[in-house]
Amino acid sequence: MPQKDPCQKQACEIQKCLQANNYMESKCQAVIQELRKCCARYPKGRSLVCSGFEKEEEEKLTLKPTSK
């Protein structure tokens, strides 16, 4: 049996918040931050719900301008 995703609860809280606030992300920043904190506690790949944040971080690193 697969292990439960450690950040599933926070992901569900984001969905509830977005639904309650007509999908206005700005009103859910606190719960989004809680998910980011949860994701930071686990190694990359451990949490499926964190994969979007992990991808976002990778893209930031590859798009970083190089200094001359």
CATH topology: Helix Hairpins
SSE string: HHH
Number of helical segments with 4 or more residues: 3
The tally of domains stands at: 1
Largest beta-sheet characterization: none
Relevant CATH superfamily: CytochromE C oxidase copper chaperone
* N-C termini distance: 51 Å
In round numbers, the mean pLDDT is 88
What is the global morphology?
flat
List segments where confidence is low: pLDDT < 50 over at least 5 consecutive residues: none
Task: Describe what this molecule looks like in 3D.
This protein is mainly α. The protein has a single domain, classed as Helix Hairpins, CATH 1.10.287. It is built from 3 helices and no strands. Helix 1 packs antiparallel against helix 2. The radius of gyration is 14 Å and the shape is flat. The termini are far apart. The mean pLDDT is 88. InterPro entries: CMC4, Cys_alpha_HP_mot_SF. One of its GO terms (cellular component) is mitochondrial intermembrane space. It is found in: Mitochondrion. Keywords: Disulfide bond, Mitochondrion. It comes from Odobenus rosmarus divergens.
Features:
single chain; mitochondrion; 68 residues; disulfide bond; Helix Hairpins; Cys_alpha_HP_mot_SF; CMC4; Cx9C motif-containing protein 4; flat; 0% strand
